Amino acid sequence: MSSKEQSDQDSIRFRKLRLASRKALEQSIKSALNVKQLRTCFPTLVQTEEGIHSLEIALSQMSAFWYTRSLEEFDLIYNEKDLEVKLNELDGIVRKAQELKENGGEPLNIDQLSPREIIDSTINTKNKNVLDNLEMIYDQLCLDNNELLDELAELKNECTEIGNSIISTTAQLAKESQSARTDIEIDKLLFSK
Questions:
Q1: Which of 48, 56, 87, 174 could, after both became Cys, cross-link 14 (CB 3.0–4.6 A)?
Q2: Alpha carbon of 127 to those of 8, 89, 93, 120, 182: distances in Å?
Q3: Residue 62 to residue 28: CA distance in whole angstroms
Q4: Which of 19, 32, 10 shows the shortest CA–CA distance to 78?
Q5: From the record, what ranges are coiled-coil (predicted)?
Q6: CB 87: neighbour CB atoms within 10 A?
C-alpha cells in the first residue's frame, strides 16, 4: 500500500465527519430558509415581481453566508478539539487491529485485563514518554554544549591574538623607551662638555 493510499485510509473518519457535517448543514439551510417561508414573513414585498426577485437574492445571500460561516465554525471546532489527529489515530488503531486479526494474532480485550496490567501498561507508556523527552533534552544539551565549545574556542583564539598584540606592543615600547634613554644620554654627553 502506498503512503498516499495509507494517508487516505487513515483520514477516512475525519473526511466522513466533514462530509456528514456539510450534508447536515445543507439540509438545515434547505429546511430553515426557503422562499415559501420568507414570503410569509414579507407579504408586502412579494406583491411585486421586483420584490420577489429581491427576496430570492436575499435568500441566496443569507444561505451562502450561513453556509460559509458554519463551515468556518466547524473547522474552528475541529482544530480546537484536534479532531483530525484524534480520528486519524483512531483509524490507525483500527487498521492495526485489522492487520493483527488478519495475521492471526489474538485481539487484546482491555476489559479482560487485570487492574495491575492496565496500570503497568500506563506506567510503561509514561516511562517511554519520559525517556523520549529525556533523550530530546540530552540531544539539545549536546547541541548547546557544542555551540558553547565553539564559542569558547573562538574566544581563546581572540585572547591569544590580543595577548600576542600586547606582547609585541610592549616589546616595541621597550625598544622605543631604550632608544629614548640612549638619545638622552647622548644629548647629556654632547651638551655637558
A1: 87
A2: 32, 21, 21, 10, 80
A3: 13
A4: 19
A5: 131-165
A6: 19
